[in-house]
Amino acid sequence: MNKQSGIHYLREHREAASSGPVPAEVARIRDTVVAGLGDLLQGAFDAVDDSLFELANNARSNNEQNRYFEAMREIRIKRKGVERHFQNAVAQFFANPPHAGQLQPQESAPQVNADTLALVGNDDLEEQVALNAMITKAKAHFQGPLLQLQSRFTEVYEDAKEEAPVNPLAPEHLCGAFAEAIQALEIQIRERLIVLKQFDRYVVSNLGMLLDEANRILIQAGVIPNFRYHGKAGQHHKSAENAAKEAQSEANTADTTTSYEQRPEDTVVFDQIRQMLALQRSNSGLPPRSADPTLRVVGGRELADMLSALPVQHNLNHSDDLSTGEPVDVDLRQIVQQLLSRVDSQDGRKPALNEVDEDLINLVSMLFEFILDDYNLSAPVQVLISRLQIPILKVVIKDKSFFSKANHPARKLLNALARAGIGWSNSDEKTRDKLYGQIHNVVQRILNEFDGNITLFETLNLEFEQFLERENRKASLVEQRTRESERGRIKSQKAQETVDRLLREKVSRYHLPEPVRDILMNGWSRVMFLAYLRDDTEHRWHETVRTVDDLIWCLHPHEEDTERDQWVRVVPGLLKALRAGLEEVSYNASRLDHMLGQLKHELAEAFRTNAAIEARQDSPADADEVDEEEALTTHQTAVERQQELEDAAVAEYVAKLDTIEIGSWVEFRLVNGASFRCKLSTVIEEADCFVFVNRMGLKVIEKKRIELAHEMRRGRLTMLEQGALIDRALNAVVGNLRTKTA
C-alpha cells in the first residue's frame, strides 16, 4: 500500500496515541457499535464464503477452482483475527478519535492523478478505488446522521473544536480500519474485492441504525438535543434535515457547475499534465505568454463563448448525416486561431490564449488523437465520437474536473457510447440499427443543444442508459436461449458420436447376422442416444451398453452347462429390455415385432446348433483390410507427429484462452479480409467449445479451444479492450508526455 494511504495513517495514529479516559456516554456508544459491527461483519464473511464457493463451483478450470477454494480456506482460518483486529481498531477510534481534517477521503482512497492513471491495473489502486467508492456512497447516504453525530462528538471530546471536528464513526475511518484488517489475508485482488463488496453490502450499507443509536444516546445525555446546523457566518441556522438536503443538492450540482473555480482535488490530473507541458515549453525556450506586452490574453469564458458561436455545420463537416465519411480529425488549434483572428482588439494588442487554455486545447487534441487511432472502437462509432471534439473542448474549459473525476457526466457519456458500440461492426446496416440510431441521436443533440450547461450530458447519459438497459434485457434473454440451445445441440452431437463409435467398435468385431446388426444400428442406437442424454438424472447409459454386450454374448457358442443355463436366464430379460427400450423411443410397432421375431430365430438357432459368430479378425478375407489399416496407422502417425509440432507452437496461445472471461469481446478476421466482432457467451466444457454471440445475443460462431489458439497464432483473433475510453486515452497521453519529458 501507498505510505500516504489512510490505512497507514490509521496504524501510525493508533500506535502513536495513548488511550485516554472515555466519557460514559461515549463508552456506551462504543460497546454498542463494536458489538453491532461484529454481528454485521459475520454476515459479510458468511456471504464471502458463499460467493467464493459458488465461483469455485462454476469455475472453468481446475486451477481457477483451486484458487477460489484456497481463498476460502485462507479467509476461514484468519477470519476471527480479522474481525478482532477490526473491532479493536474501531474501539480505539473512541479512545483517540482522529480529527476529520487528519483523515481526508483522498487519504483513505487514492487521489486520482497522473501517476495512478498509468497504473490503472495495479492491485493496490483497484482496492483503494473500491474503498473510495464505498466511502463516498456512505457519506451521501447517511449525510444527515453523520453531520449530527460529528457535531455531538465534537461537543463531547475536550480536544475537539469546530475547526477540527471528530467523528469515530466516519465512514472513512471504518472502511480504512477494515482495509487494514484484511491485509493479513493472503488472497489475490479478485477475492479481496469480493471481501470489500460484501463488507459494503452487509456492514457499510447498514451503518444507519448504528448512527441513529449513537445520536439517540448522545441526545439522552443532553448533548445538543435540538440540533441546528451552523452554516457560514451571516447565514441563518438551519435544521439538520434542511442542512442535509442543501448539502446533497450541492453535491448533485457539483458536476454540472459552469463556474471556472474548481476545487484543487478536482483539477489534480490536469495540473500534473500541465507541469509536463510546461516542462516541454521550457525545454523549447518559449517565453511565458503573460510576459509579452504586445499580447492580450483571452480568458477561458471568452474562449468558451467564441466556441459556442461556431455553427453546428462546422462539426458536421457540411453534412446532415453524422455517419458519413471517415472520422473527423479536427485541428482544434487552427480553429481557435481563426476565432482569435476575428477578435476586435481595442488597444491594438494581438489576442492570444493564456497557457492554461492552450494546454487544455493540446490535451483535448491528444485525447482525440488516441480515440481516432483506437482499434477497440468500432469504425462507425468512432466516426460519431470524432464529431464531439469541439463540444468536449467547451466542457473542459468550463470544468477541468473532467480529467480527474471518473463520474463526470461528459466523461461517463463518452465511455458509455464507446462501450455500447464495441460490438458494432457492420456499417451497411446503420440505418436499421436501433443502437446506432441512438448513438447518432446523442451526438446530434450535443452538437445542436450544448450551450455550456453540463446537465445536458447527464440527461443524455440517463436516457442512453435506459435505452441500453432495455436492449440488454432483450439481448440477455436471446443469449440465454442461445446458450441453452448450443449446450443441448453440442451434448446431442457428443451423444450421437459416442453411440456411433461404441456400436461400430462392438459390431465391427464380428460377422453378426443381418437382423442383429439392423436392430442394433437402426433401433437400439436411438435408445442408447436417449439414455446418454438422460444419464445425469436416470443413469441408464451403462444398462443400454450392457444390453448390447449381452446380445452379442448370447450369439456366441456355449457348450458348458453353466453357460447354457445362464443363456436361458438372460435371453427373456434381454428380449424384454430390447422391446421396452424400442417402444420408449416410439419405434415402428409392426417393424418392431418383425425384428424381434427375427432376433428370436437367430438366438434360438445359435443355441440349438451351437454355431459360432465369426470374429472378423479371424477371417482370411480381412487380411488385406488389416494391412491397409496398418499402412493407414503409419500414415496417421506421421500426420500426428506434424500435429504435435503444430500443437507445441500454439501451446502458449492455448494458455491465453483461459484468461478470456465470459462477456469479453473479440474480433475475427477472415481469410478474405472481412472481419466481425462478437462476444464470448459460454464455454461448453464437455466439448471444450467456445460459443460467441453478437450484441443481440444470436450465435455467430463456435470454435474448439485448439482452433481458437490457431486463429490467435495466425493473427486472425484479436482481444478487444473494454476499459473506459477516456481512462485509456488519458493513460496513453500521460505515458507519451512522460516519455517526451524524461
Mind sketching the topology for me?
Blueprint: H1 6-16, H2 24-57, H3 62-95, H4 105-108, H5 114-117, H6 123-141, H7 143-156, H8 171-181, H9 189-202, H10 207-220, E1 228-229, E2 238-239, H11 240-254, H12 268-284, E3 295-298, H13 300-308, H14 313-316, H15 332-341, E4 350-353, H16 355-373, H17 379-386, H18 389-398, H19 409-420, H20 434-449, H21 455-507, H22 514-533, H23 535-538, H24 541-554, H25 561-584, H26 589-609, H27 623-649, H28 651-657, E5 665-669, E6 675-684, E7 689-693, E8 699-704, H29 705-713, E9 717-719, H30 725-741
Parallel strand pairs: 3-4
Antiparallel strand pairs: 1-2, 5-6, 5-9, 6-7, 7-8
Protein name: DUF1631 domain-containing protein
Biased composition (Basic and acidic residues): 238-248
InterPro entries: DUF1631
Oligomer: single chain
Number of domains: 4
User: How many β strands by DSSP?
Assistant: 9
Shape category: extended
Question: What is the terminal separation in angstroms?
Answer: 26 Å
The overall pLDDT, averaged over residues, is 77
Radius of gyration: 37 Å
**Largest sheet, spatial ordering of strands:** 8-7-6-5-9
The proportion of residues in beta strands is 5-15%
- Please report the number of helical segments: 30
Pairing-aware structural class of the strands and helices? mainly alpha
Largest sheet properties? 5 strands, antiparallel
**Residue windows where pLDDT falls under 50 for at least 5 positions:** 1-19, 101-111, 117-121, 230-261, 617-626
Task: Specify the helix fraction band.
Answer: 55-70%
Protein name: DUF1631 domain-containing protein
Region (Disordered): 234-262
Biased composition (Basic and acidic residues): 238-248
InterPro entries: DUF1631 (IPR012434)
